[in-house]
Amino acid sequence: MAIAKAERLMNLALCLLGTRRPLSKRELRDSIEAYVEAFGPGNGATGSDDSFNRMFERDKDDLRELGLVIETVENLDGEVGYLARRDSNRLPPITLDAEEAAALGLAAKVWQQARLAGAASGALQKLRAAGLPEDVDPYGSHGALEPRIPVHEAAFEPLMLACRDRRPVAFDYRKATAAHPEQRHVEPWALECWRGHWYLAGWDRDRGAERVFRLSRITGKVRSRGGRYTADVPDVVTVRETVASWAGEVADRSARIRLRAGSGYPLRAKATSVRELGDGWDELEIPYGHGLDAWLVEFGPDVVVLEPAELRADVVDRLRAVAKG
Asked: What tens digit of pLDDT does each residue of 280-296 get?
């Protein structure tokens, strides 16, 4: 069984690498002997079509896990095809010194998820085959360090794969100030962890602009969409800087708020001054930047904005929108 699967994967890889145009599932099914023997030609019964589709998707995922870059292309008729361009699947000679290998070893230790751990281990094995010195142990150096990046969101893995494969996605997203989620269509660029939370940066097709999404606010499943990206992917995606700006980390002004005593500790940590007002309230002066209104809304009735007037108006508008549902 293992030999048969390996042969089937090899034939599928050769088909995808040897074609000059995208091949549909039907064409691949008719071209690979293992598929024909198992399921018959592409115009078979519905049951065989379903079984073939499941096997094909598994085979395609297995080839991607092995490092083959498979592109998904949709033609003018809406039919999806697949190919693996040779220039996308060819690497120059790789040489690493001991320090570079140690850094890769630390990176491989970061991931706790089994899927990512396997991918990292496989990558190191490929680097050894490409010329990594035999006397260098990527896992042995800096053995006292055990870096970890926790990932609890179910959306992380499908979004990671979508970023890698350059596949548009759709998902339901609930903003911090919204009562209900709404569907977003996104061309994913990059994932990054900032202050214990994962964020996705990409092109929001519905809004026609770059957006950053917090993964913990994605509800339901991440669904893949066919077709190519409509926007250029920037060379550098500044996820942390964007999130920091939206969270009010980049501030050039100050705001005065009233805060209920014993609450709002994140706000107190940012305050440049705190004054007790009595009757269970304090007055704080905090940095004011883009996104502060959305953050203040999260504290509900424990916060009252005193000034500036535009910040107070923005907070009131957000609260009214939440109340309306």
From this structure: 999 999 988 777 887 88
